Amino acid sequence: MSERTVLIVDDELAIRDMLRMALEMAGYRCIEAENIQQAHALIFDERPDIILLDWMLPGGSGLELMRRLKREESTREVPVIMLTAKTAEDNVIQGLDVGADDYMTKPFAPRELIARVRALLRRASGGEEQGRMEVGGLVLDGESRRIIAGDDAIDMGPTEFNLLQFFMSHPERAYTRGQLLDHVWGGNVYVEERTVDVHIRRLRKALQTEAADYSGLIQTVRGTGYRFSSRGL
């Protein structure tokens, strides 16, 4: 496998140095930006495989850059980990809602960061891909990583795709948030359970298509978690 490129976007040189050293020791190639303008240029010139994005940046916020990336077809699939000193739940949820795949609150351990980077890259590349599955006209093709409803392709992020792939492979069974984290994110990755709720919400939104509303396939099971069921159609 070719060397993966990580873009580090942070205005603090000491943090960039720490991240670069840890990532390079783990075998990654690093590029750096200290503001939104530099980051935007590097993203389109270098095409990084994953982005570590600070919340607060000179000339604008990381959320502003995130919105721009998710609007562009060429960059919306790039995994993003938000780096933030903000700990309030509303701020964390806001970052995930805008499109972040994960977040880390400063200060954090480099080993944990590397684990999350590896997990996100594994998920973005499809991990163990599966074949074609269909439920009520909704088709998921694991080899091409496409989702089709009728004649229309459905756009969604890599995490939502992997969630749907897992659900379609394991229908009619309720899973807790913790179990979903283990199966989809990986058991050695430290992600809070509320992250699951954000991605479920984004998956349901993506499944509301012009051809049909498939969001009902993802059912909330009170006191437990979530279940995929064709009875929701």
Name of the level-1 CATH class of the largest domain: Alpha Beta
Summing up helix and strand content along with how strands pair, one would put the structural category as alpha/beta
Strand content: 15-25%
Fourth-level CATH superfamily of the largest domain = Response regulator
Radius of gyration: 18 Å
Instruction: Determine the N-to-C terminus distance.
Output: 41 Å
Summarize the topology.
Layout: E1 5-9, H1 13-25, E2 29-33, H2 36-46, E3 50-54, E4 56-57, E5 60-61, H3 62-71, E6 80-84, H4 89-98, E7 102-105, H5 110-124, E8 132-135, E9 138-141, E10 146-149, E11 152-153, H6 158-169, E12 174-176, H7 177-186, H8 194-206, E13 218-221, E14 225-228
Parallel strand pairs: 1-2, 1-3, 3-6, 6-7
Antiparallel strand pairs: 4-5, 8-9, 9-10, 10-11, 12-14, 13-14
Helix pairs in contact: 6-7, 6-8
